[in-house]
Amino acid sequence: MRIIETVVEMQAFSREARKNGKTIALVPTMGYLHEGHASLMVEGKKRADILVASIFVNPTQFGPTEDFDAYPRDLERDRNVAVAAGVDVIFAPKASDMYPRGFQTFVAVEELTRHLCGASRPGHFRGVTTVVAKLLNIVMPHVALFGKKDFQQLAVIRRMAGDMNMDVEIVGMPIVREADGLAMSSRNAYLGPEERKSALCLSRALATARALFRDGECRVATLREKVLRIIGEVPGATIDYADFRDSETLEAIETANGQTLIALAVTIGTTRLIDNCILGEEN
Ligand code: PAF
After folding, report:
1. What average pLDDT does range 110-131 have in this prediction?
2. Burial tier of 179 (Cβ tally within 10 Å: 0-12, 13-18, 19+)
3. What is the CATH number of domain 2-173?
């Protein structure tokens, strides 16, 4: 496996690969890789000749009071996960190469970013779409894979790629969970043992709402009250949002159906976690 650290070298590599008729898959990450990332990589490997994983903790998607400095980083560990998952190239640029002096161009998706994490984290999605647009331009993949745990991020990136006529297929992959239901996330590393237990309230609330829906409950007010109660009972859990939305438009709804998204953002101690499910689906 090769590690490429500069934009110029990455572009030259991809240009050459494409000239030789090779297809490229990209898995964009911020590192501290876990099985969720590995599942994207394994799928990427099936879909293209060359698998590139980018590792870049993107400063423009963090707010001034957020965890950019504390975000876990461990390239050696990431290298092992990437090798095991079949990655051919790790692209790990420096911030000064991605955002050189004078940088002033941003990509922003307007409507889809007004809700959920877009409302709680102003500027976050502008940073995400900007860096993903740059990564797509640099790596020039035929396909790029993202996890559905960041459901809104996936919707926003799909919209950007469509609206900007980007010549890339965007693939969403199922959430990967720990055996006890906790959605895998690099930020789980922040949780102490008690917080780790408390964090299970997210997946528990989702599973309970889904079971109620299966038993015929469609009123969002009732389902939401149950979700709020389950999370509210947990010491140290603070709800940022617990929203029921149309999974296509992300608009709020009052009557649930099989395609309804439940999106949660909950702070456990000081760690902000997100999770979601589609009511009529299994994961
Ligand atoms: O989901 C992430 O890890 C990041 O938001 C992404 C897509 C790699 C952009 O920095």
Report:
1. 97
2. exposed
3. 3.40.50.620
